[in-house]
Amino acid sequence: MEALGYSAADFYYLLPELILTGGALLVLLVNIIVPRRGDLLFGISLGTLVVSGLVLASFAGVDTTVSRGLLAIDGFALFFKAIFLVSAALTLLMSAPYLRVEGVPAAEYYFLILCAALGMMFMASGVDLITLFIGLETMAIAFYVLAGYLKPSHKSNEAAVKYFLLGAFSLGILLYGMSLLYGVTGTTRLDGIAEALAGQDRSLLLAAALILLAAGMGFKIAAVPFHMWAPDVYEGAPTPVTAFLSVGSKAASFAMLLRIFVEGMGALTPDWQVIFAFLAVVTMTVGNIAAITQSNMKRMLAYSSIAHAGYILIGVVAATERGVVAALVYLWVYLFMQLGAFAVVTMLRRHDVVGDELKDMSGLFARAPAAAVAMLLFMLSLGGIPPTAGFMGKVWVFGAAIDQGFIWLAVVGVINSAISLYYYLRVVVFMFFKEEAAGSEIAMGPAMVTTLTVAVVGTILFGIYPQLLFEQAQAVAGSLGASVTSAALQ
Amino acid sequence: MDFIWLIPLIPGIGAALNGLVGVRSFSKRTAGLVATGAMAAAFLLSVVAFVQLLGSAERYHKVTVASWIPPIPLETANGIGSFEVPWAFTLDPLSGMMLLVVTGIGLLIHIYSIGYIDHEPRGGVARFFCYLNLFCFFMLILVLGSSFLVMFVGWEGVGLCSYLLIGYWYKKKSASDAGKKAFIVNRIGDWGFILGIFLVFFTFGTLDFREVAVAAAALPVETAAVGFGVISLICLLLFIGATGKSAQIPLYVWLPDAMEGPTPVSALIHAATMVTAGVYMVCRNAVLFTHAPMVMEVVAAIGVVTALMAATIGLVQTDIKRVLAYSTVSQLGYMFLATGVGAFAAAAFHLMTHAFFKALLFLGSGSVIHAMNEEQDMRRMGGLRRHMPLTFATMCIGAVAIAGIPPLSGFFSKDEILYRTFLHSPLLWGLGAVTAAMTAFYMFRLIYMTFFGEYRGPAPDAEGHGDGHGHAWHGPHESPRLMTWPLVALAVGAVFAGFVGVPAALGGSNMIEHFLEPSFTVPGAAHAAEAAHHYEVEWALMAFSVLLAAGGILFAYRNYVQRPEAADELATRLAGTHRLLTNKYYVDELYDATVVSGSMSSARGLWRFDGGVVDGAVNGTGWATRASAMISHVLDKYVVDGLVNLVGWICREGSYGFRRAQTGLIQNYAFATLVGVFAFVTWFLVGR
Questions:
Q1: Per-residue pLDDT tens digits for B645-660
Q2: Distance to chain A for B79, nearest Cα, Å
Q3: Which residues of B touch A333 (CB under 8 A)?
Q4: Burial, B219: exposed, middle or buried (Cβ in 10 Å; 0-12, 13-18, 19+)?
Q5: Beta carbons of A219 and B673 less than 8 Å apart
Q6: Per residue in B309-347, is it b (16+ CB within 10 Å) or e — as a string?
Q7: How far, in Å, are A82, A165, A236 from residue A230 at the CA level?
Q8: Residue B55, C-beta contacts closer than 8 angstroms, at least 6 positions apart
Q9: Staple B610 to which of B18, B236, B428, B614, CB 3.0 to 4.6 Å?
Q10: Are B131 and B161 in contact (CB under 8 A)?
Q11: Quick count: other Cβ atoms within 10 Å of Cβ A113?
């Protein structure tokens, strides 16, 4: 091993990933030995995430690279890996009751969730284009299968095929961009790229690489006009998968985006700032306006998720440490409110009701008051009303933009937040002021209670005590490399 | 002293226990014990902290518990500043003194409450103690907060608790109305306070009291010659906040109505602690105020006029608690008078002594009301000294103290204020002295009407005269020991508390003034030159005010004991004045006719405006948004789809085999991606 350039430290720092791999394989193995034990598999999967998280936590403060410099173990990676593990754990918690109702096998499902999380971890750590791409593929392939996991459902099948085809298409674009970038700089390593770009004139080839990379990443974060897959896939995929897709996958893609553009292409900041500023405006506006007329909760949340990608992009546009901090904070905040909202939708899936239409929310307050109040909180937070975390996230994102002179961008963001309140509050109206919808009793098991509790606590805590999150994000943003500071100096 | 953050927290935990668990499952006794225990612990910690403070050289200790609001860039007068507020507490002489007052008197009142609130149903008792503890939690945050914003958290919190406790008997309409009145009137004051805080941040770029004081000390004093500058504006706005919380003209009207709350609440919140928060806030910002002498004149004038006006109203009130309420307003006016003439230490000193004797008087009145079966009208009392000797004795001590008879506590603090006022302006002193005479009169009128003469109340009723609690009332009786014991403790305080501030003219050293001095200046400031001592003047003033007090007492004795009919004769002779006073100068009516009905009619107007114009605009915007969504939908459906279908038609013809798997939409999606890519490429080629 030593001869190949690997040392024991490499394996030590990859332990969280190795544990995930082991846990994923163990799930499959256990399923063969003792079949149809969904609870056992659930326990193994959740345990894997917890152990991986604990090992990960012990890496706090580490700043090194492993695997011959292909993977960075730094604060930035750690911050994102924590997002992935928490969102995967919450996804698992809401999946357990959902899988029982749907009556689909659990083993492969848990296996794929863990694999997707594994791919995300590499996307956060990778500091090499190929490594990042492999992480992305690992995650994407797991999601292709997960989207079509409900085999009898046409919608689910359709989602899988669409996601796969469009995913392949966009990955092609991304790879094309990467190869052009390699062609210009002669390396796939981000630090090498940054070095090569520093003294280079802006050629057309470079512009093409930039645009293709932006388009490829834009697809992954579902930025308009690369978003068209999202509503269909979000609607068709099993609800917990949708939740994980909209939070975990999006966060991982943002991690990769920040790595490539801020760390690798910091020298081109003014160029990609323009692209992302345009994307941010279009994404927010289209996402919010399209969400208004949706009658399906998952579709509505899909458009809402598109709009939120737009808000986060504002932070990326600001491109300074403040902007990155804002984006990081926003992703955490978004995790809690978005997963919470999806958890409530998941809960409405009962043996006789699909439960993902807006009208299924009717009279929820009378049937399940706790869930309705939690949902109210998530909707307020998504809409950015204080004292919820969503408000704080928006304050930072818009603040970072204003700081960098992108006042018009912040103005567009605020107008969009106002528009978004329309469809968020419509959910509240349905929950609190409409007659109860048909369907059997809504059961709230311990797993669902845990999910909602975590989401509610996160949404409130970071709303009234944002410092907790802010300090972490600030400590982390610095580890994105000197490029951030140099961008700030321009 | 690093543990001072625990002091507010402990009552907070007590409130949480009583509120979350207690209302459902605590017995009355447990609820009382939890709350009282929390206060006792807070008091002990306060004593320890205070002793440590006395032992420390610096007399300033700031504890940052946690960061709270992270740095947010905000516009200030000096460019972009960083708006950052830590969750920090400060222990200095001023907050240390307040700490002892709040926890010490708070503890006694908690003990008293166990006896007082015993008639209430079980859940109600826990609710009461929850609010009471919560109040102490916020009050201690207010006192300890080391920045405007932390103080404001406490400031709003005590306002909330005040509202909850005034309306404790929320089924009674007058009580819930009084709660609302207090809340709304305070809101008007808070408007000023908040604007003041904004302006402080805008001007100084920080909200920390010490930093603001240091920054302000470097600025010139805004005398009439310099003009009315930003510090004056800040102080004026802050003072508006203080008039709301501390019941000064024009916002004092809520306090008398607040007497609808249970009596221990009146004692704790509406006499000893919360209402003094305005005075405390002004003292806390002594450096700011001394830089705004024009506002100081306003403060002094408002203070003395409030003191005089409230005292005159107090002369004719017949409700025992309302007499005390107006007396509180009047005494608070004294404190503002003191701050207005620059005697911040005297204000704080009077705040402390007033806390003792006014809490004592309120609790005593509570004991009387308890004994009289919820009767509050003094015309239906009389002769109670035989039935409740302990209450009588302690209330007498309170009355003597507030009247300003040496050597009780009120004498020292009040004379310090009057002396300093005299040096500043003999006119203000004159008004203050008249007020002092009136104070002595109405307090002894209260004592005489309640405890002397013949018993005029309802006959003790053997047939279970409805007292609402299902047991018969056996005539006036002394209250249980849980209630009288705190009276005795407070009486001891009312007698001796003044000795910490014996003036130099009487051979003392005015300890408290020297102790508090560091809180009113910035570190390193040169000690203010000791004012030249005019012992003769001070002696003369003292003698004069003692004479006035004695005159007031004697006049009360003649009118209410010797010839009880004399008071009525006087009232008939001065019928006009009497009517004006019993109707409290018609201020409530004036407010009703102007502000209240004005707001109501403008609210109705706005409602119509809202219904017509705003709703129209909102609906219009909503319609426009929907319309644009529809347009984009139509666009999507006919234009985009049309184009896509064109492309799709070509593809579809060519790849028939894929047709079943492809819905046509995927091409649409991929096409959009390509459009995006090409748009950017075009822009890069053409646009730059």
A1: 665 454 444 333 333 3
A2: 13
A3: none
A4: middle
A5: yes
A6: bbbbbbbbbbebbbbbbbbbbbbbbbbbbbbbbbbbbbb
A7: 24, 13, 10
A8: none
A9: B614
A10: yes
A11: 26
Please answer yes or no on whether B680 and A292 come within 8 Å at the CB atom. no
Helices (H), B258-292: 263-267, 277-284, 286-290
Can you give the C-alpha Rg of chain A in angstroms? Answer: 21
SS3 A72: strand
- Residues B244-284 have pLDDT tens digits of 999 998 888 888 888 888 999 989 888 888 999 999 999 99
Phi and psi at residue A428, to the nearest 5°:
-60, -45
Listed in sequence order, the residues at least 6 apart from A167 whose beta carbon sits closer than 8 Å to its beta carbon are: A140, A144, A219, A229
DSSP string, A178-219: HHHHHHHHS--BHHHHHHHHHT----HHHHHHHHHHHHHHHH
Per the structure block, which two tokens stand in for B19? 């509120």
Report whether B379 contacts B449 (CB < 8 A): yes
DSSP B133-186: HHHHHHHHHHHHBSBHHHHHHHHHHHHHHHHHHHTSSTTSHHHHHHHHHHHHHH
Which of A158, A170, A289 lies closest to B629 in CB terms? A289
Q: Is B620 on the interface with A (CB under 8 A)?
A: no
Q: How remote is the C-alpha of B660 from its chain's centroid? A: 74
Going by C-beta distance under 8 Å and a sequence separation of 6 or more, which residues neighbour residue B13? Answer: B38
List Cα–Cα distances, A307 to A223, A234, A388, in angstroms.
8, 14, 18
Burial class (CB in 10 A: 0-12, 13-18, 19+), B482: middle
Residue contact B681–A403, C-beta within 8 A: no
**Half-sphere exposure of B293 toward its Cβ, with a 13 Å CA cutoff?**
9
Pick the more confident residue, B657 or B376.
B376
Structure tokens at B107: 């503890």
| 3-state SS class at A367 | helix
DSSP-assigned letters across all residues of A275-320: HHHHHHHHHHHHHHHHHHT--BHHHHHHHHHHHHHHHHHHHHHH-S
Q: Do B670 and A211 touch (CB under 8 A)?
A: no
Q: Does residue A416 contact residue A288 with C-beta atoms inside 8 Å?
A: yes
Beta-bridge mates of residue A296:
A357
Q: What is the DSSP string of A119-181?
A: HHHHHHHB-BHHHHHHHHHHHHHHHHHHHT--TT-HHHHHHHHHHHHHHHHHHHHHHHHHHHH
Query: Helix or strand or coil: residue A366?
Result: helix
Dihedral sign of CA atoms B378, B384, B388, B389 in order:
positive
Cα–Cα nearest to A85, from A126, A51, A111, A131? A51
Q: Which residue of A has its CA nearest to B636?
A: A290
Say if B68 is an interface residue toward chain A (CB within 8 Å).
yes
pTM of the predicted model over 0.90: no
Judge contact between A22 and A45, C-beta under 8 A. no
CA dist., res. A40 & res. A34, Å (int): 9
User: How many residues does this entry show for chain B?
Assistant: 688
pLDDT digits (tens, 9 = 90+) for B28-69: 888 999 999 999 999 999 999 999 998 888 888 898 888 888
Q: How many CB atoms lie within 10 A of CB A171?
A: 17
Amino acid in the structure at residue A33:
I
Whether A202 and chain B come into contact, CB under 8 Å, resolves to no
Report how far residue B570's alpha carbon sits from residue B580's, in angstroms, rounded to the nearest whole number. Answer: 14
**Residue range B496-525: mean pLDDT, rounded:** 82
Tokens of B509: 């050293």
| Contact criterion met (CB below 8 Å) for A342 and A239 | yes
Tell me which residue in A166, A215, A290 faces B677 most closely, judged by beta carbons: A215
Asked if residues A455 and A90 have their Cβ atoms less than 8 Å apart, the reply is: yes
Task: Please name the residue of chain B whose CA is at the shortest distance from the CA of residue A154.
Answer: B661
Say if CB A301 and CB A379 are below 8 A apart: no
Structural domain boundaries of chain A?
2-480
